[in-house]
Each structure stands twice: as structure tokens, then as C-alpha cells.
Design a protein that fits this description.
alpha/beta, single chain, 6-stranded mixed beta sheet, 28 strands, Molybdenum Cofactor Biosythetic Enzyme, Chain A, Molybdopterin biosynthesis moeA protein, domain 3, Molybdopterin biosynthesis moea protein, domain 2
């Protein structure tokens, strides 16, 4: 298992802008998950651990882009129709098998290799393809219209991929298209990072598991389930450690036991400086902890540290704050540890359907649902509540509107950055 540097998360000072915090993460965090080789069939969704270099050209030979007739352009009458004898039939996977001579036309189908010329190369053979619907068959001949340009409807060798080129760079999550292009150059296996191993637990004497009883003064544990879902959406292999009581020694034992088999430990709640917040003392007894005082809302100081060589992430206890801080800090941390190279969060410009006032110097996120205005354009409508404990507002929302530090007031109708949930949760 790879190790983190001891000072990986260390920095302090005044409230830190989110952009600076993300830059620090990108600069200091390196993959801890080891590479493994998997079949291409099981590579989708995994993060690539090596550059994929093409061992062949794609397409491997010049071929026809349409069903029609392959001819030498120089045989065509530039001013009128041309009649040529059809001397052969070429289908995909079935080359002509002999050199093509001048004055011949060949019935050819999409994907079929262009015939070679007298010297045995495709470069010297027929160079132009007429679409069949533009031609007229007449016995064993074909009548070709004037006006087609040289090289029309011909795909060239290496037009898509050139042999020796890097077609997918390491650090990229493999989607269907990356899997497909790897297959197109003959790859049957790829090196990917194994899934990040994360352990998650909640803390608090008042927290109870769903399905059991919740006596007066107690609550059901929503955070742990939401965080596990977020981690799994990013491809992590998650161990559920359940709920730990407010006891420093018990929390420390659980962290110490979990660390050897995991790359990341995640908690929610218990990381503030209150008398009943025991996670901080437990982590510091085993390693290091740093409080990142980020200028964000919802959220509050987020705890990042290490238990031995294993990364630790302490999220706020309020469920909305826990989810949002995970999306903006936890997500890039998880992806960087997992080997992903680019962790920038995608944003889309939409129209704001609400007014909003905020504190200058702080980045904030408003929960919104997209609706359509009269012109069919998307408008972001603010959800019914902005409280950090109102989890139903996240259910109502489609995503977040991000308001930067230099914004003090938002007016209805302004264009704003929209962050859809499905772009940051993996689901």
C-alpha cells in the first residue's frame, strides 16, 4: 500500500478560499491504490493506471465510407457522365485479391478495403467512391455522374488512430468510449488502479441505525448511509464500521483496527472542539489531524489528517453540510487517492430564478431544482429550505448553484454556475 507524506494536509491560517484548498490537494495528494491488470470487459468505471498506446492504425487500411463504386478519379470525365465496366465486388473483410487496373469500377461496401493498384499498394489504387444512390447500373457497367471530388467517401489508414499514439492517458476514468477505443487497437487487458478501500463510521451516543429503535433524544443515522453511497458512486470499496459511542478510547481503537486494511477513513460528526467531540483526540492519539477552515457555506471546518499512513476525512455532523463538503472536498480527495488525474468539478451556466444575499468573501451553495422558462431554457429555482440539517432539501434539489467569494448579492435572472448532483456523485 502506498504511503501519504506526513505533511500532506498541513496548512493553517485564516479562512482559506476553496480554490486554494483544492490546489493544495492536487499538488500534495498522490494515488495510494496500487495498479492491477483487468480484462477490458471489466474495465468500465475504473481509473486507468497506464497510458494506452496504439499498437496499430485505426482503420488499419484505406476503406470505403459508403456502399457504392470505387474508381480511379483520373478515369472520370470532368464535364459529364462516365461509363465504366464493373469488374469486381469488394465487401468488408474480403479484399479484391488482385491489383485494380485503370478503366475499372468496383462494387464496394461500407468498411471494405480499397483495392490496391499496380504496385500492390492502396496509394496507387482507386481513390474515389461514388454513393450507390448517385449511380445508374447498366448491365455490367455503371454510369457515374460528374462533379465528385477526388478522394470522396474514402477513409484513410490511421484516420482515427495512428500507430504509436497515446489514445487514452493514465489517470482517466474509463467510460464506454475509452473502453471501445482500447478495443479498437486490439487491447484485451488494461492496467487500472484497484478500487480505493474506504472505511466509514458515524459517532454519537444519540445516533441509531435504521431498522432499530430510536428512543427519545435519539436520531437515525442518515449521514453514514449517504456518505457510503457517495463513496461507492466514485468507485470506492467501502467498509461500514457502524456507529461509535462518544468515547475517545473506543474511537481510537476502531480507527487503529481499521487503518491497516484501508486507504481512507471517513467519519461524520465529532470533529469540533466541544466537550463531546471525541474524534479529534482519537485521531491525534494515532497520527495527525488538521482543521481546514474553509470559507464555505454550508459546512464548517473540515478535518483532514492521517492515522499512521492512512488518510482521514472528518465531515460535519449536519447531513447537508456533510454531503456538500464531501462533494467539494471529499470527492477530489477520493479521486486523487484513487489515481484520477483531473478532478475539476463541471459547471454549467443557467439562469437564476431567485434573489440571494450572502456574506462577502465566502463561497456558498444554494440547493436548486431546474425548471424551464417560457423560452425552454433552464432556470434554477431555490429549494424550500437552506438549513444545514434539512436533508429533504437535497432530495428536492437537482444540484447546487455556486456563488463565488466576490458575490454579495444575486439578482433573479442573472446567469450562475450550476453543479448537477449526477456530475459529482457518480450516480
Amino acid at each position: 500500500m502506498a504511503q501519504l507524506k506526513d505533511d500532506c494536509f498541513a496548512f493553517g491560517g485564516e479562512l482559506t478560499p476553496l480554490a486554494d484548498a483544492l490546489a493544495i490537494l492536487s499538488d500534495r495528494v498522490r494515488p495510494v491504490a496500487e495498479p492491477e491488470t483487468v480484462s477490458l470487459r471489466h474495465a468500465a468505471g475504473r481509473i486507468l493506471a497506464e497510458d494506452i498506446i496504439a499498437d496499430c492504425d485505426v482503420p488499419p487500411h484505406d476503406n470505403s465510407a459508403v456502399d457504392g463504386y470505387a474508381v480511379y478519379f483520373d478515369d472520370l470525365d470532368p464535364d459529364g457522365e462516365t461509363r465504366l465496366k464493373v469488374s469486381g465486388r469488394i465487401a468488408a473483410g474480403h479484399p479484391l485479391g488482385r491489383p485494380a487496373e485503370k478503366g475499372e469500377a468496383f462494387r464496394i461496401f461500407t468498411g471494405a478495403p480499397m483495392p490496391a493498384g499496380a504496385d500492390g499498394t492502396q496509394a496507387s489504387g482507386p481513390d474515389t467512391v461514388f454513393m450507390e444512390e448517385d449511380c445508374e447500373e447498366d448491365g455490367d457497367s455503371v454510369i457515374l455522374p460528374a462533379g465528385l471530388k477526388r478522394g470522396s467517401n474514402r477513409r484513410n489508414t490511421g484516420e482515427d488512430v495512428e500507430k504509436g499514439s497515446v489514445i487514452v492517458k493514465a489517470g482517466r476514468r474509463l467510460r464506454a468510449q475509452e473502453v471501445g477505443v482500447a478495443a479498437s487497437v486490439g487491447r484485451s487487458e488494461v492496467a487500472v488502479y484497484r478500487p480505493l478501500k474506504a472505511a466509514v463510521f458515524s459517532t454519537g451516543d444519540e445516533v441509531r441505525d435504521p431498522g432499530g429503535d430510536a428512543p427519545e433524544g435519539c436520531i437515525y443515522d442518515a449521514n453514514r448511509y449517504a456518505i457510503i453511497a457517495l463513496l461507492e458512486g466514485l468507485g470506492a470499496d467501502v467498509t461500514d464500521l457502524g456507529i461509535l459511542k462518544d468515547d475517545t478510547e473506543a474511537i481510537a481503537r476502531a480507527l487503529k483496527d481499521a487503518a491497516p486494511g484501508h486507504d481512507l477513513l471517513v467519519t461524520s460528526g465529532g470533529v469540533s472542539a466541544g466537550e463531546e467531540d471525541h474524534v479529534r483526540d482519537a485521531v491525534e492519539s494515532l497520527g495527525k489531524i488538521h482543521f481546514w477552515r474553509l470559507a464555505i457555506k454550508p459546512g464548517r471546518p473540515i478535518a483532514l489528517g492521517q492515522v499512521g499512513d492512512v488518510a482521514f476525512l472528518g465531515l460535519p455532523g449536519n447531513p447537508v453540510a456533510a454531503m456538500v463538503t464531501f462533494m467539494v472536498i471529499g470527492r477530489p480527495l477520493v479521486l486523487l487517492l484513487s489515481g484520477m488525474a483531473e478532478v475539476t468539478r463541471p459547471r454549467f451556466l443557467v439562469e437564476a430564478g431567485f434573489d440571494y444575499k450572502k456574506k462577502l468573501g465566502r463561497r456558498e451553495w444554494a440547493r436548486v431544482k431546474l425548471e424551464s422558462n417560457g423560452d425552454g431554457r433552464p432556470v434554477a429555482m431555490r429549494c424550500h429550505s437552506s438549513g444545514a440539517g434539512i436533508l429533504t432539501s437535497m432530495v428536492e434539489a437537482d444540484g447546487l448553484v455556486e456563488l463565488p467569494e466576490d458575490t454579495e448579492a444575486l439578482e433573479k435572472g442573472a446567469m450562475v454556475d450550476y453543479l448537477p448532483f449526477n456530475e459529482v456523485t457518480g450516480r
